[in-house]
Write a structure and sequence with these properties.
Layout lengths: L1 H8 E7 L6 H6 L8 E5 L6 H7 L3 E4 L8 H15 L5 E6 L2 E3 L3 H11 L3 E10 L6 H10 L4 E3 L6 E4 H6 L11 H11 L3 E12 L6 H17 L7 H24 L10 H12 L7 H13 L1 H17 L9
Parallel strand pairs: 1-2, 1-4, 2-3, 6-9
Antiparallel strand pairs: 4-8, 5-9, 6-8, 7-9
Length: 326
């Protein structure tokens, strides 16, 4: 009876681009639920579309004449989902490199049914191969959010259909940071975003190289600047610019004063790393992991600043290019 209830109440939107290696596992993780599912493909050059069709999943291929973005893909998937089931109450968004926990839909629907002021719920997303590389470990730590009401969620979450629809979905013009922007609009109308102490699924970043991590952080910095369009993340982009720009200021100070005393300002970096280390709240971490988290938090300021620069260059050139780290 419960499975039938879920089938009627919820639908799933999966988005992806060149995720043929991971899509079978993604689809298999939700095979037990008979609800409507839509896969949205952003011009994959691999067998992603064929794999989705083999699994009996509805496919939407985005028009290549328009700019790609995760926001646009999710919106298109949601629109098609309503065509398949106009009566659905909830929609779960998931990426093609993720797998859904077998209990998540039950947990999400139970909370949304009982807490009528909650519009969005999400749970613990874990990096599937956490110990394969330090970069995957960083992803796993980054996914963590304590249980309770929060300002925003990530791309994997379950929404109340009426709220998502009334908001007009994600801002398709944003190529990064579309989730917190939507969550802000949702909260401004009195709804709540809730983080649950429950397993939601796993994510496979396949991030084994420093260059991949760097590019991912560039996208984060780009997303910070997208926040200028909706009034968010000003603290984050200012922090990135300060810490990335500090070495240039120090060098300039040393050259103009003919004194090496300014080099002492470089001590601000280990001091800040220690502060982050002491305040780290990314779950139950060992001292080693807390140090790794703190060190890379500081190092990320440099690629984030590159993302900020990329944002302005895109504005000048009127480009709207998706930043891919895979």
């Amino acid at each position: 009876m419960m499975s039938k209830n879920i089938t009627e109440k919820i639908g799933i939107v999966i988005i992806g681009r060149n995720e043929a290696k991971r899509l079978p596992l993604c689809f298999q993780s939700m095979d037990m639920w008979g609800c409507e599912k839509v896969y949205v493909d952003s011009d994959s050059s691999d067998d992603s579309v064929a794999i989705a069709k083999e699994h009996g999943i509805e496919v939407v291929e985005l028009d290549k004449r328009l700019p790609f973005s995760a926001a646009r893909a999710r919106n298109e998937g949601f629109k098609h989902l309503l065509e398949l089931n106009a009566e659905l109450e909830f929609v779960h968004f998931i990426d093609g490199d993720c797998e859904l926990d077998k209990n998540w839909l039950l947990d999400a629907i139970d909370v949304l049914d009982k807490q009528e002021t909650v519009a969005v719920v999400f749970g613990r997303l874990r990096e599937k191969h956490r110990n394969t590389s330090v970069y995957m470990k960083l992803c796993d730590m980054g996914w963590y959010k304590p249980a309770g009401f929060v300002d925003a969620c990530g791309g994997i979450a379950t929404y109340r259909r009426t709220v998502f629809e009334s908001m007009g979905g994600f801002n398709a013009l944003l190529i990064a940071g579309e989730e917190p922007e939507l969550c802000l609009r949702i909260r401004n109308t009195g709804w709540k975003v809730l983080s649950l102490d429950a397993e939601m699924g796993t994510h496979d970043s396949a991030m084994t190289q420093f260059t991949q991590w760097w590019t991912r952080c560039v996208k984060v910095g780009f997303g910070y600047m997208n926040g200028l369009d909706w009034g968010g993340w000003s603290k984050q982009y200012k922090s990135a610019l300060f810490w990335a720009g500090l070495p240039f200021f120090i060098v300039l100070l040393v050259l103009t004063t003919n004194s090496s005393a300014g080099l002492l300002l470089f001590l601000l970096y280990p001091v800040q790393i220690y502060r982050i280390f002491k305040k780290a709240s990314t779950g139950k971490l060992s001292r080693k992991d807390r140090f790794i988290y703190a060190f890379f938090c500081m190092l990320s300021k440099f690629p984030e600043s590159q993302g900020i620069l990329t944002y302005f260059l895109n504005k000048i050139s009127s480009k709207n290019k998706v930043i891919q780290y895979k």
